[in-house]
């Protein structure tokens, strides 16, 4: 069955694939919070979570084990169960005629799959063939800043360092950080089981697999996905990704070189007017965005925009954003909202 470009103009049957994870639970909360037109909700997970109960709009919904019959008569699947699960069920979902918005990296670089940040490239969503990819969390936060700036003055090169919280590795990593931090305070030696090294009072370079160029997979996701979203396959971007002992919300230090000088005042004005972005800073008190400022909130916070003293064409800035919300679940729901018929009336 060929999927339609737009979602049906009626209450929808929506399935969350991976409903028991941190992002899955956030998806559930956001569907209710944003009054998404859900007529029937199906919560899908592995057999380990089947039978669990979650609440939606005042009613209890039982989590079901995912099977080949789970997607029949479903309009929309919000998938957040990992790349292997998305690949396993992709053909079944497409043959059912449903739209899958996938939070994994499985199809992001597939030329037939749109990679969408709604504030940046919304028109690409309508080109889908049954699957739309949600970008990597750090990529989403970066694209929200780069897009409005490069529309003003073209970008020549970007250097970014990320400071990524435990939430990026899932709910179990967040729980482990809390547990191991207490062990350190108790004078014990922490031993990590979820992450390769203890994150308690520690940090380490992102542990995704190293590529042949000695960049890790996470860093190359930022490079390749940003190029695709901005429609610039030759964009020069280099990244260093670091895991830090923060429970939730990612931060990024960004250096952007333009083709000519970019006045700092204009950069502030542009970003302040950009959807999904807020300026947060108190120069007198040396106060700039922190993870605690954005945790549980939708906008990404930007501050400390300044002239690069080593390059007259470059700006430096700092940003923070909630990885689970805008970096994952919120972006996916916003993609679905783009395809609601009411937005094309």
UniProtKB/TrEMBL annotation:
The EC number(s) this enzyme carries: 1.2.1.11
CDD domains assigned: ASADH_C_bac_euk_like (cd18131), VcASADH2_like_N (cd02316)
Biological process, per Gene Ontology: 'de novo' L-methionine biosynthetic process; diaminopimelate biosynthetic process; isoleucine biosynthetic process; lysine biosynthetic process via diaminopimelate; threonine biosynthetic process
Keywords attached to this entry: Amino-acid biosynthesis, Diaminopimelate biosynthesis, Lysine biosynthesis, Methionine biosynthesis, NADP, Oxidoreductase, Threonine biosynthesis
Reactions catalysed, as given in the entry: L-aspartate 4-semialdehyde + phosphate + NADP(+) = 4-phospho-L-aspartate + NADPH + H(+)
Binding site for NADP(+): 20-23, 48-49, 167-168, 323
Span of domain Semialdehyde dehydrogenase NAD-binding: 13-128
Residues that coordinate or bind substrate: 164, 217, 243
Keyword DNA-binding attributed: no
Pathway(s) served: Amino-acid biosynthesis; L-lysine biosynthesis via DAP pathway; (S)-tetrahydrodipicolinate from L-aspartate: step 2/4; Amino-acid biosynthesis; L-methionine biosynthesis via de novo pathway; L-homoserine from L-aspartate: step 2/3; Amino-acid biosynthesis; L-threonine biosynthesis; L-threonine from L-aspartate: step 2/5
GO function term, MF aspect, one: aspartate-semialdehyde dehydrogenase activity
Residues binding phosphate: 108
Enzyme class name: oxidoreductase
A family per Pfam: Semialdhyde_dhC
Active site, per annotation: 137 (acyl-thioester intermediate), 250 (proton acceptor)
Coiled coil: none
Subunit structure: Homodimer.
Function, as annotated: Catalyzes the NADPH-dependent formation of L-aspartate-semialdehyde (L-ASA) by the reductive dephosphorylation of L-aspartyl-4-phosphate.
HAMAP family to which the protein is assigned, alphabetical: ASADH (MF_02121)
Family per similarity comment: Belongs to the aspartate-semialdehyde dehydrogenase family.
UniProt name for this protein: Aspartate-semialdehyde dehydrogenase
Species of the source: Prochlorococcus marinus (strain NATL2A)
């Amino acid at each position: 069955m060929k999927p339609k470009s737009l979602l049906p103009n009626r209450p929808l049957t929506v399935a969350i694939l991976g409903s028991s994870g941190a992002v899955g639970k956030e998806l559930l909360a956001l569907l209710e919070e944003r009054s998404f037109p859900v007529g029937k909700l199906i919560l899908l997970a592995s057999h380990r979570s089947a039978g669990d109960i979650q609440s939606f709009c005042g009613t209890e919904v039982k989590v079901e084990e995912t099977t080949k019959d789970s997607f029949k008569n479903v309009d929309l699947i919000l998938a957040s169960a990992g790349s292997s699960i998305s690949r396993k069920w992709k053909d079944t979902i497409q043959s059912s005629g449903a739209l899958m918005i996938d939070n994994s990296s499985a199809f992001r670089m597939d030329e037939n799959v749109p990679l969408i940040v709604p504030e940046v490239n919304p028109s690409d969503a309508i080109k889908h063939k049954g699957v739309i990819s949600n970008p990597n969390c750090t990529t989403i936060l970066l694209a929200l800043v780069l897009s409005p700036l490069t529309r003003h003055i073209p970008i020549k090169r970007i250097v970014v360092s990320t400071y990524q919280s435990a939430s990026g590795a899932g709910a179990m990593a967040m729980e482990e950080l809390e547990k191991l931090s207490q062990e350190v305070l108790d004078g014990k030696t922490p031993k990590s089981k979820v992450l390769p090294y203890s994150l308690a009072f520690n940090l380490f370079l992102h542990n995704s697999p190293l590529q042949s160029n000695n960049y890790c997979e996470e860093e190359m996701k930022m490079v390749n996905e940003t190029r695709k979203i901005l429609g610039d396959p030759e964009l020069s971007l280099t990244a260093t990704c670091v895991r830090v002992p923060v429970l939730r919300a990612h931060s990024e230090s960004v250096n952007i070189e333009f083709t000519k000088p970019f006045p700092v005042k204009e950069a502030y004005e542009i970003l302040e007017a950009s959807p999904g972005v807020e300026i947060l800073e108190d120069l007198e008190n040396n106060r700039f965005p922190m993870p605690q400022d954005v945790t549980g909130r939708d906008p990404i916070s930007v501050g400390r925009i300044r002239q690069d003293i080593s390059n007259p064409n470059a700006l430096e800035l700092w940003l923070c954003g909630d990885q689970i919300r805008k970096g994952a679940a919120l972006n996916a729901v916003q993609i679905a909202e783009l395809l609601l018929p009411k937005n094309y009336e």
